[in-house]
Design brief:
Layout lengths: L6 H8 L2 H22 L1 H13 L16 H19 L1 H28 L12 E10 L4 E5 L6 H8 L3 E9 L4 E5 L2 E5 L2 E4 L3 H4 L4 E3 L11 E5 H8 L8 E3 L5 E8 L12 E4 L24 E6 L5 H15 L7 E7 H4 L6 E2 L9 H28 L1 H13 L4 H38 L11 H26 L4 H5 L9 H34 L9 E5 L8 H9 L4 E7 L8 E7 L6 E8 L3 H5 L3 E4 L13 E4 H7 L8 E3 L7 E7 L15 E5 L6 E6 L4 H15 L7 E3 H8 L1 H35 L1 H9 L4 H35 L11 H26 L3 H4 L4
Parallel strand pairs: 2-14, 6-11, 8-10, 18-23, 20-22
Antiparallel strand pairs: 1-2, 1-12, 1-13, 3-6, 3-12, 4-5, 7-10, 8-11, 9-10, 15-24, 15-25, 16-24, 17-18, 17-21, 19-22, 20-23, 21-22
Helix pairs in contact: 2-3, 4-13, 5-11, 5-13, 5-14, 5-22, 11-14, 11-16, 11-22, 13-14, 16-22, 16-24, 16-25, 22-25, 24-25
Length: 868
């Protein structure tokens, strides 16, 4: 025995002494037999496999059997549940897949909802911080819209005149990317903002180095985030170091601040003192940032506790009447709570470089996740009810040996709990794997660690408990209701849950068809919005920002690029699609009041570069000096004025000023998101200054080679600024980013709902046909054809689908009517989406049921009826 493998020693140490002799004797006997027949290596391998089966708690020498009767009952429940799961593998897999998908969707939605509602909660004074925004009203046309931008003097005047406002903070995220340089290190940032020194009094952005009271007091002061400071300075102490920034000016680093929290709607990498822009004080001398007329900044107010924000906003309107009288009928101010800014700014325009979400999008995703959970739950209930006939015998046996109704219910609830627990574990794994892709889909950066927040853990436990109880309570209640005598007399034939099953199936179909219709309508609407941007051939137009050191060489760069064979046109001016335009009031001829108009300062190449069609008149000509004293308007301007033609009209830029004749009308094109705005009335005029955008139309040649050529010419003129460009079609896609996200997520949820419906229908149909197999066999013996049997089986499902389609169509119509009104461009009502959803659902049902019915119909009646 000394030559036995070492595993015997482990068995002797592990197993109870009264069991060792028997276990080792059996193993030794089998090992000797295998060694003689299979050889020593295979025998040893099989010995180890057999030995491992004894390494269980029940064989352990210190094992004490459970004495608690309640614990023993629950162990028995779970063992019986596990046997039931293995016995009905197909239905268990359908339920497990459905629950896993549903809980995964619900978890992802919970992560999103919790993350979205956590924005700006880190600020201790959040209850008293408000953002000023205004309603822009056109009294002539009766139109209005909301904007977040205010003038640079509004905040100081409010604090000065109204004691309930204790602090103000003005924030101006810079329009262009800025290169910050220290010695030979150059790094570009898109997140530089001008801010008042009070930003550290109002918000809890933690200053790691520097004095929060003085860090942004003096002109040319700059505060860097910790990450950007390390990138620019490495291990050096950045305080009091001088760096180059906007307009190649020198700035002194006066502080290092923690990186902006990812759940802050204000994002920055560099904070520059507002005094840098103040005329007569700072080097930038930006009058437009410090007057009443220009509206381009964001103003935050800290109110004293208990102050009435609505009343203060009404008081703020009086300041417009005093300081900007010409706008007293146009501007009406409101205050928005800090906690509402991220999610409830859908209707507020011009939230430049702010981290803004969408309340509607969050609600849509949360509601879609709930619908998926409902579909999976209905699947489980339907299949559980369909299994009732098979489970009734187990119920009878349990009741015969003394089980109460409560114990029978707990037995079936334990099976659901086991499946749900497995689904939760699988869902956590899927969330871990899918979260990066989900973040890309919804344009977020939610970390997986968020899944362990108390609120998410509570949701997870809630799913586990709620699903385990709710979706199996009724089936377990129905199954446990029968007495042993009824069961022994064949009560399984008297179980009647058909009506409930049909109602649940109808709910499932209704939810799925509604999702399909809504998804098709969303796709149609977004495609229609995208079609509004195609007036400009955006795929071949790129825009290079010249608001940097290359700007002074803009003409030289433009001329060099025009010489390339694959560059058909280049426009060097302030205007571009995606930037370089602004709004002013103009006075058209015959119009008593000024009209708000979008201004385009262009050159003679602008229309050709963007492919803009001239509807009447002619565009600006290079060698005709009189054209510089004329203007061009767009279709929207002509329609707004109610003119038949604009060629005999003039406009003035101020009362009593020069009258500029209109020399042409061009087609409308978007310079803002078509999801939020119609094309505004626009005026173009020639302007040689402010040439900070170079728009380039590419030909049909090699794009990569052309981009290399552009890069070479840029590098020849730029010392520290990298080439920054964008294609116009990509810009349009960014303006529709929220809507495109909605399309992608709707499609995914619809696919999941269809998959769950298909799985549930398959499992339910299989169980129902198995219960009716004898009826089908008898009908076949009596002469029914396979086709007739398939049609009979499909009849009840078709009726349910038709009823569900009617209800789903009404629900989808309501959704479409309430959702589509938010867009300026709206699709017309069309039955195609409704019919496509209904027909596809009908075909899915008929195909699934017909396949199973055909299999049941072709079975040999002699086999299924042999016991009758």
């Amino acid at each position: 025995m000394d030559n036995r493998p070492g595993i015997f020693k482990w068995i002797e140490k592990f197993c109870a002494s009264e069991l060792v002799e028997g276990i080792m004797g059996d193993l030794d006997e089998l090992y000797a037999e295998d060694k003689a027949n299979l050889g020593p290596k295979r025998a040893k391998f099989r010995l180890y496999l057999r030995a491992l089966t004894f390494l269980r708690p029940i064989f352990y020498k210190g094992f004490k059997p459970i004495q608690n009767p309640n614990m023993m009952i629950w162990i028995h429940y779970f063992r019986a549940s596990w046997r039931s799961i293995k016995r009905y593998r197909q239905n268990s897999m359908i339920n497990l897949i459905g629950l896993t998908l549903a809980i995964t969707c619900a978890l992802l939605m919970s992560l999103l909802v919790v993350d979205e509602y956590s924005f700006d909660k880190m600020h201790r004074k959040k209850e008293n911080i408000f953002r000023l925004y205004k309603k822009n009203v056109n009294p002539v046309k009766g139109s209005s819209f909301f904007t977040a931008e205010t003038s640079g003097l509004m905040g100081p005047e409010i604090v000065k005149n109204f004691p309930e406002a204790t602090h103000f903070v003005r924030i101006n995220p810079w329009f262009d990317d800025i290169v910050l340089s220290y010695e030979d290190r150059h790094f570009q940032t898109a997140e530089m903002i001008f801010a008042d020194s009070s930003i550290f009094d109002v918000f809890d952005f933690k200053l790691l180095q520097g004095n929060p009271k003085t860090a942004l007091k003096r002109p040319s002061s700059i505060v860097l985030t910790q990450t950007f400071a390390q990138k620019l300075f490495g291990e050096e102490d950045p305080i009091n170091k001088t760096i180059k920034g906007i307009n190649d000016l020198s700035f002194t680093v006066t502080g290092v601040v923690e990186d902006a929290p990812r759940t802050s709607h204000i994002q920055f990498e560099a904070l520059v003192s507002w005094t840098t822009t103040t005329p007569g004080i700072g080097p930038l001398n930006y009058v437009w940032m410090n007057n009443w007329l220009s509206q381009s900044h964001y103003t935050y107010l800290l109110l004293s506790p208990g102050s009435d924000a609505r009343q203060l906003a009404q008081k703020a309107n009086s300041l417009i009447a005093i300081n900007l009288a010409e706008r007293k009928d146009n501007y009406f101010f409101h205050l928005q709570s800090l906690s509402d800014i991220h999610l409830k700014s859908d209707e507020i325009l011009y939230t430049r470089k702010m981290k803004i979400g969408s309340h509607q999008f969050v609600l849509l995703l949360a509601f879609s996740g709930l619908l998926i959970l409902i579909i999976a739950s209905v699947n489980y209930i339907n299949i559980s009810l369909a299994k009732a006939t098979k489970n009734i015998k187990e119920v009878g046996l349990r009741k015969v040996i003394g089980s109460s109704r409560r114990q029978v219910i707990l037995r079936f609830l334990s099976e659901t709990f086991m499946l749900t627990l497995m689904a939760v574990i699988l869902s956590l794994i899927l969330v871990y794997l899918l979260l990066p892709e989900f973040n890309v889909l919804i344009d977020k950066d939610i970390p997986f660690s968020s899944a362990f927040k108390p609120s998410i853990v509570t949701c997870l436990l809630g799913f586990l408990a709620l699903i385990s109880v709710v979706i199996d309570l009724y089936p377990a209640w129905v199954i446990s209701a029968y007495s042993p005598a009824m069961i022994l007399k064949g009560a399984n034939r008297s179980i009647r849950v058909g009506s409930l099953r049909k109602i649940l199936l109808g709910i499932q179909y209704t939810v799925s068809i509604t999702l399909i219709i809504c998804t098709l309508l969303i796709i149609r609407q977004i495609d229609y919005l995208k079609s509004q941007t195609l007036t400009i051939d955006g795929e071949k137009v790129m825009v290079i920002n010249l608001n940097n050191e290359v700007g002074e060489h803009g003409t030289l760069l433009g001329n060099r690029l025009r010489a390339h064979s694959n560059i058909t046109s280049a426009s060097l001016c302030q205007a571009a699609v995606g930037g370089g335009t602004f709004s002013v009031m103009v006075i058209p001829s015959g119009q008593p009041q000024a009209v708000s108009t979008r201004i385009f300062r262009v050159d003679t190449h602008f229309a050709k570069t963007y492919g803009i069609t001239i509807l009447e008149g002619q565009y600006f000509r290079p060698d005709v000096r009189s054209d510089s004293n004329s203007v061009i308007v767009n279709e929207a301007f002509v329609k707004y004025m109610g003119w038949e033609t604009a060629l005999d009209k003039t406009i003035q830029f101020q009362e009593g000023g020069t009258k500029y004749p209109i020399m042409a009308t061009v087609e409308d094109f978007h310079v803002s998101s078509p999801a939020k705005n119609l094309v505004s009335p626009g005026v173009m005029y020639l302007h040689e200054g402010n040439q900070n955008n170079l728009s380039i139309r590419l030909g049909q040649g090699n794009v990569e080679e052309t981009l290399d050529f552009i890069q070479e010419n840029w590098d020849a003129l730029a010392e520290r600024t990298p080439l920054s460009y964008s294609f116009v079609d990509e810009w349009y896609d960014r303006t529709l980013k929220a809507e495109l996200r909605m399309v992608d997520t709707s499609v995914i949820f619809t696919i999941i709902s269809i998959l769950l419906c298909g799985l549930g229908l398959y499992g339910l149909s299989a169980l129902m046909l198995e219960q009716k197999i004898k009826e089908i066999s008898i009908r076949k013996v009596l002469g029914a054809s396979v086709g007739a049997l398939v049609a009979m089986t499909n009849r009840q499902f078709v009726l349910i689908i038709l009823i569900s389609f009617v209800i789903a169509s009404a629900a989808a119509f309501w959704f479409n009517s309430s959702w589509i009104v938010r867009f300026p461009y709206q699709i017309d009502f069309d039955l195609s989406s409704y019919l496509l959803a209904g027909i596809s659902s009908l075909l899915l049902s008929i195909g699934t049921v017909s396949l199973l019915a055909y299999r049941a119909s072709v079975r040999n009646p002699a086999i299924t009826l042999k016991d009758e």
